[in-house]
Amino acid sequence: MRHLSTKATCNSHGQDSSYFLGWEEYEKNSYDKVQNPKGIIQMGLAENQLSFDLLESWLEKNPEPAGFKRDGKSIFRELALFQDYHGLPAFKKALVEFMAEIRGNRVSFDPNHMVLTAGATSANETLMFCLAEPGEAFLLPTPYYPGFDRDLKWRTGVEIVPIHCTSSNDFQITETALEAAYYEAQQCNLRVKGVLVTNPSNPLGTTLSRSELNLLISFITTKGIHLISDEIYSGTVFSSPGFVSVMEVLKDRNCDKSEVWDRVHIVYSLSKDLGLPGFRVGAIYSNDDMVVAAATKMSSFGLVSSQTQYLLSALLSDKKFTKNYISENQKRLKNRQNMLVMGLKRAGISCLKSNAGLFCWVNMRHLLRSDTFEAEMELWKKIVYDVRLNISPGSSCHCTEPGWFRVCFANMTEETLDLAIKRLKDFVVEHTANGHSKSNNSSKKSKRKLLPKWVLRLRDRDHEPDER
Predict the structure, then answer these.
(1) What band does 198 get if pLDDT is binned at 50, 70 and 90?
(2) What's in the keyword line of the UniProt record (predicted)?
(3) Measured between alpha carbons, how far is 185 from 106 in angstroms, rounded to an integer?
(4) Crossing angle for the helix pair 52-61 and 319-346, to the nearest 10 degrees
(5) Which residue(s) pair with 254 in the sheet?
(6) pLDDT in tens, 345-362
(7) 209 in Cβ contact with 241 (< 8 Å)
(8) HEC states along 290-331?
(9) DSSP codes of every residue in 317-371
């Protein structure tokens, strides 16, 4: 150990989160209809597998891009040789046009303000390096994606200060919560450099309202700080209200003529909307030339391969395909989300009303033995080990209220989702009959305890899952 760096030996990566423990248990005993029908079903993975047939159909009809050909001639050597880190112009043009299409072409993007990165993980970390020094802070509304504790903090040294949102208003961001988080950071002698939001939210599956976006812009204007809008799920919005990008609100407020224009940055990826996390395609969009220049230099540590860019530039440039894909994918997500919500409802479990994403924010507070995070962990362990479903407990998302869970629905077949719902329904019946729920333990007084930094600790691992 003494021969290694402090980074190699520190415990700030975030792998000791219960979020990662669920993945570890799934990998040891993963469900397979034939080989392991009693295994753990993966419902902790925000992956979109519902529209692969549309992508595969396009590839069959367009063999040249996948074969690295142009006009019948091989361009393999051209793609195999060194490409500079600015990216292929044709791909950047196709990507910004796809981003505009998702937003109903109400806003446009300049490819010269885009930096390509190896996924949204790399994009968010690169922005941290560009915008903050070690020991400075970003404010994040809770609940938030557990991987942010790794992505934003581990190598950068940047701190996260939570903006505590609650179920009383469906976890919407309020001015009071923003100011409280800012004050908390000051009390800890942390200089706040910005706010980071995910829109649509992971894990809530909801879009930020126009009023929330206006509140955020006003807040960062007053404080003189940055705003990062991670819009990785922007193409998954399947119900009203529709998606509103922060860029739309900036233009509505004529912010392009103000100083705040350069302090708002967008993160995007094709991991969710196209279901291509393995392709490692992410992007930073910023109006600040210095941020773009610095991030472009940093992107050399995590480039998108030229072969990937060439293939996807052809696919995204096919406007007939992208129009049909966006529409059909959203329909499929809506149907699958409804299947989960209705199935859970029949099991006596409710969900936060959502309109986007690949997951539901599920309320199981009534199944807790007591109103504590210890009880949440107790329930979660039963679901993982006994029910054999890997879901993500709210505490891993830094939720301030015990009993919420993120449950994914787009990474499996309908048949597997049906089985998962049946398992959970059977568990609820047995759990309630045995008197384990909070309603059956009303005489036991319990004091709600503060959210722990991490709930469980894991042994060292070779790798951790990366949804993004």
Answers:
(1) very high
(2) Ethylene biosynthesis, Fruit ripening, Lyase, Pyridoxal phosphate, S-adenosyl-L-methionine
(3) 36
(4) 160
(5) none
(6) 999 999 999 999 999 999
(7) yes
(8) HHHHHHHHHHHHCCCCHHHHHHHHHHHHCHHHHHHHHHHHHH
(9) H-HHHHHHHHHHHHHHHHHHHHHHHHHHHHTT-EE----SSSEEEEE-GGG-SSS
Q: Where are the domains of the chain?
A: 6-53+322-438, 67-320
Beta bridge partners, 392, equal 406
Say whether domain 67-320 belongs to CATH 3.40.640.10: yes
**Residues 252 and 269 sit within 8 Å (Cβ to Cβ):** no
Residue range 454-466: mean pLDDT, rounded: 43
pLDDT in tens, 13-72: 556 666 667 778 888 999 999 999 999 999 999 999 999 999 999 999 999 898 888 888
Per the residue annotation, which of 153, 193, 272, 438 is the catalytic one?
272
CATH architecture assignment, domain 6-53+322-438:
Alpha-Beta Complex (3.90)
Among this protein's residues, is 272 annotated catalytic?
Answer: yes
Q: Which residue in the list 232, 284, 349, 391 is annotated as catalytic?
A: 232
pLDDT above 70 (res 12):
no
Find the catalytic residue in 16, 149, 151, 230.
230
DSSP label at residue 198 = E
- Residue 145's H or E segment, with its range, is none
Q: Is 230 a catalytic residue?
A: yes
Calculate the alpha carbon distances from 37 to 339, 387, 388, 421, 428 in Å. 21, 12, 11, 15, 21
The dihedral built from the CA positions of residue 194, 228, 394 and 392, taken in this order, carries a sign that is negative
CB 19 within 8 A of CB 396: yes
For the residues of 90-120, what is the DSSP string, one character each?
A: HHHHHHHHHHHHHTTTSS---GGGEEEESHH
Query: Residue 444: left if φ>0, alpha if ψ -120 to 50, beta else—which one?
Result: beta
41 is catalytic: no
- Return the exposure string of 9-34: e unless at least 16 CB atoms fall within 10 Å of the residue's CB, then b: eeeebbbbbbbbbbbebbeeeebeee
Say if residues 376 and 394 touch (Cβ distance below 8 Å): yes
Would you say 417 and 340 are in contact if contact means Cβ atoms under 8 Å apart?
yes
End-to-end CA distance of the chain: 31
- Name the catalytic one among 145, 268, 285, 310: 145
CB atoms within 10 A of CB 97: 18
Closest CA to 360 of 368, 351, 369, 347: 351
Distance CA 233, CA 242 (A): 12
Name the maximum alpha-carbon separation found in the chain.
77
Q: How far is CA 191 from CA 32, 130, 188, in A?
A: 49, 15, 9
